[in-house]
Amino acid sequence: MNTTVVNKQPILSRVEKKRLAQSDTRPRKTLSFYRYVRLDNPDNFRDRLLSVWSDLDCLGRIYVASEGINAQMNVPVENWESFNVWIQSQPELAGVPYKFAVSEGEAPSFYKLTVKVRDKIVADGLDDRSFDVTNTGEYLTATEMNEYIDDPDAVVVDMRNNYESEVGRFDNAVTPDVVTFRDELKHTPELLKIHKNKKVALYCTGGIRCEKASAWLKHNGFKDVRHLKGGIIDYAHQVESQGLPNKFRGKNFVFDERLGERISDEVIAKCHLCRKVKSDTHYHCKNQICHTLFIGCDKCLEKKKGYCSFKCTQVDKLPENLKKPYAKYYNKYLRKRKQFVKTRLA
Asked: I want to staple 62 with a disulfide (CB 3.0 to 4.6 A). Which of 16, 71, 120, 191 is the partner?
């Protein structure tokens, strides 16, 4: 897969970039957006984004491909007008709908700006030539999504990974036990075959995964497939602005430094370390070789000192000359299995 990266910023370590971002105390808007649009030269488009957004002090992670753009980023409030004016002036981006964060965290949601050229804007494992990717399902509003949740003749499906649905999901939703979107698309048609004649509603974080998934399910014989417009993020905004019942339980997992934004006060997950205490706060293991994402309660986090296991506390004490060969072994044989175990629903 092509993951060409151009970055005009000085080469800094992860810690240095984080410290630099945290020192910039200007208020920021965190947002995401995507658009499926034909880009004849993704590399040139990438360079254009990087040049303008660097000048505006934007931070984020953006994927560009010949099929379009998928952006998760933040923008200084003082530069928002300039950012938006530029977006609207670009033929590839004009009118693209923004999904603004439900809440900003205490720390910046991103601490560097990275724009990558990839084969696809979402890694789905599908051959787009094998089906009509434009034959997507119709959108659902928040009101309509609530109606689907209450309808016994409808099925609501979470198109996210299990570590996302573990901390937050809609009432009565089907939550496939998978760790990648690629796996979800592979298994969902078979998982849902008993519901083939029902109305199907898909949802994800901001809508991009459901766009492709709705076309894939229709290709696999599902007649009535719709998806939540703007995903969980826009649902939360609609619920608040329209005074609707909130049928989402828990947190919305997000792929930035916040690792989650609260949609309801309910905590539905448990600590991965003790498996007893309710918690939905994610951490990355302090052992950089591991760096596994896990849920921890306050007591376990203090006891393990930020590590996901006793073994990781010991590995982190190894001399540097031993860490490198262990890291190679870990990445080759242990990482995938450990992440799957850690993120399984409690």
From this structure: 71
Pair of tokens at residue 149:
């949740």
For domain 4-117, say whether CATH 3.40.630.190 is its number: no
CB 108 within 8 A of CB 257: yes
Annotated catalytic residue: which of 58, 204, 297, 308?
A: 204
Q: What is the dihedral of CA 262, 122, 234, 227, to 10 degrees?
A: -120
pLDDT value at residue 4: 46
Angle value at C-alpha 231, between 227 and 233, nearest 5 degrees = 160
Rounded to an integer, what is the distance from CA 28 to the centroid of its chain? 19
Question: What's 128-242's CATH class?
Answer: alpha beta
Q: Is 271 a catalytic residue?
A: no
The set of residues, in sequence order, having a beta carbon less than 8 Å from that of 238 and lying 6+ positions away, is 141, 142, 143, 244
SS3 of residue 318 by DSSP: coil
pLDDT of residue 301: 95
C-alpha 288/C-alpha 262 separation (Å) is 27
- CB proximity list for 302: less than 8 A, separation 6 or greater: none
**Looking at the predicted structure, is the pLDDT value of residue 249 above 50?**
yes
One-letter amino acid for residue 38 of the chain: R
Are the folds of 4-117 and 128-242 the same? Answer: no
Work out the number of other CB atoms within 10 angstroms of the CB of residue 123: 13
DSSP string, 106-158: SS-S-SSEEEEE-S-SS-----GGGS-TT-PPEEE-HHHHHHHHH-TTEEEEE
- The answer to whether residues 272 and 296 touch, using CB atoms and an 8 Å cutoff, is yes
The structure's pTM equals 0.87
Domain regions of the chain by residue span: 4-117, 128-242, 282-343
Q: What whole-number distance in Å separates Cα of residue 247 and Cα of residue 278?
A: 20
* 141 burial via Cβ count (<10 Å: 0-12, 13-18, 19+): middle
Average of pLDDT values for 76-82? 98
Distance CA 247, CA 120 (A): 32
